[in-house]
Amino acid sequence: MSQTCIYLDYAATTPVDENVISIMAQHMGFTGKFGNPASSSHEFGQSAKLAVEYARTQVAQLIGAQPAQIVWTSGATESNNLAIKGVLEHFFQTHPGKSAHIVSSPLEHKAVLDTLHYAEALGATITWVQPDSTGAITLEAVRNALHEDTLLVTLMLVNNEIGSITDVAAIAAAVRAQGALMHVDAAQATGKVEIDVGTWAVDMLSLSAHKTYGPKGVGALYVGERAAPLMQAQIHGGGHERGLRSGTLATHQIVGMGSAFAIAGQKLEIETSRMQNLRAAFLHELEGIPGITLNAAQTQTVPNTLSLTIADSSFEPAYLNGRMAISTTSACNSASNKPSHVLTGIGLSPEQAARTLRISFGRYTSEEDAVNAAKALRETLDALREM
Ligand SMILES: Cc1ncc(COP(=O)(O)O)c(C=O)c1O
């Protein structure tokens, strides 16, 4: 990999923290805790089980949950599927012939949007709450979308493309007052904002390890006491995880997620202030360059994620290739090659969306990296103007 290419795509994925790697390595080989956590009859299984349960407390702690409320999954995509399909299927099974109403927003990740389209095909009705002019999903807009018989509201805490933060705590209170369940996709939020399902009226919350310096392929769903009896498992085969998600637990992945989340909790404040400094240094370096718009600038965002639209129609994000690794859209949308639904959802044209850069800083970004990235962008735009 080129040493001069600056990695600024932490919203797509993060490298695994070296401490996390060493803990994971202790849970794989014969001299480590490799046993099946479900093998309760011998100490190999028992020690693996202890490690899994310790990781469960670490994940629970970061979000203010009880350990027993954490269900291990393969990532936030699966967690979102379990939350939405699990509640919907249970509802259809227990209320045959009744219609199900779900509220969400068009700015959600594909892991929610595609699951909701599937839910629609199964007979659910979806109300899509539109963002306001700043790109925010407001309490008032969600309130207006709620019906007396709304089953579920599903919204993300931090948007993966523009970094906007939704006030899910306030929204969840209104949703609970209405009698519906609230699911939150928090894949982009861990280690960046405080999460407290202990006081929020949130019933389910999706988590992913690889956005927070843990390994890929592992995640969790917080399932609160209200939601647990109202969910149908999506993976059957042994009744693991309170009957909600069967399958042998991936001990090394799980301990990796646990230790990554413990580190995220310890570093939350310091990393937030470091990200604010990086953002300020980056934006300072861009000052005075005409034709750059910071999207979602009027709403609350996490400091590490910036979405910039370049006005110059001759600009192509590919001009930055080799100098910085960034996204023009979320990693998932890149696969479909369509304009980002989030950017068009906040009012950008498909052409503007194609000239939009997502720059996301992280734990290994230095101030020099942030400044050099801004300089590279400035030089690219200067060269285009001169042509
Ligand atoms: C907001 C959001 N939700 C869900 C996901 C999917 O997470 P995972 O990769 O763990 O399946 C992502 C990852 O891009 C995301 O950003």
Descriptive account of the structure:
The protein is of the alpha/beta class and 387 residues long. It has helices at residues 18-25, 43-63, 76-94, 110-121, 139-145, 168-178, 251-286, 331-336, 341-345, 350-354, 367-386; strands spanning 6-7, 70-73, 101-104, 125-128, 150-156, 181-185, 204-208, 219-223, 292-294, 305-310, 324-325, 356-360. It folds into two domains: 6-14 and 268-386, Aspartate Aminotransferase, domain 1; 18-262, Type I PLP-dependent aspartate aminotransferase-like (Major domain) (Aspartate Aminotransferase, domain 2). The strands form three sheets. Strands 2-8-7-6-5-3-4 form a seven-stranded mixed beta sheet, with helices on both faces. It has a three-stranded antiparallel beta sheet with strand order 9-10-12. Strand 5, helix 6 and strand 6 form a beta-alpha-beta unit. Helix 1 (18-25) runs antiparallel to helix 7 (251-286), helix 2 packs parallel to helix 7 (251-286) and helix 3 (76-94) runs parallel beside helix 4 (110-121). The longest helix is centred in the C-terminal third of the chain and has 36 residues, at 251-286. Bound molecules: pyridoxal-5'-phosphate. Pyridoxal-5'-phosphate is lined by residues 75-77, 109, 111, 156, 160, 185, 187-188, 208, 219, 330-332.
CA distance, first residue to last residue: 30 Å
Largest sheet: spatial strand order: 2-8-7-6-5-3-4
The CATH H-level superfamily of the largest domain is Type I PLP-dependent aspartate aminotransferase-like (Major domain)
* Uncertain runs: none
CATH architectural category of the largest domain: 3-Layer(aba) Sandwich
Strand portion, in percent?
5-15%
Approximate shape: globular
By CATH reckoning, the class of the largest domain would read Alpha Beta
Radius of gyration: 21 Å
- List the total number of helices: 11
Ligands and ions found:
pyridoxal-5'-phosphate
Q: Share of helix among residues? A: 25-40%
Q: Count all strands and give the number.
A: 12
Q: How do the SSEs run, as a string of H and E?
A: EHHEHEHEHEHEEEHEEEHHHEH
How would you sum up the major sheet? Answer: 7 strands, mixed
Domain count:
2
CATH topology of the largest domain, anyone?
Answer: Aspartate Aminotransferase, domain 2
Mean pLDDT: 95
Computed structural class: alpha/beta
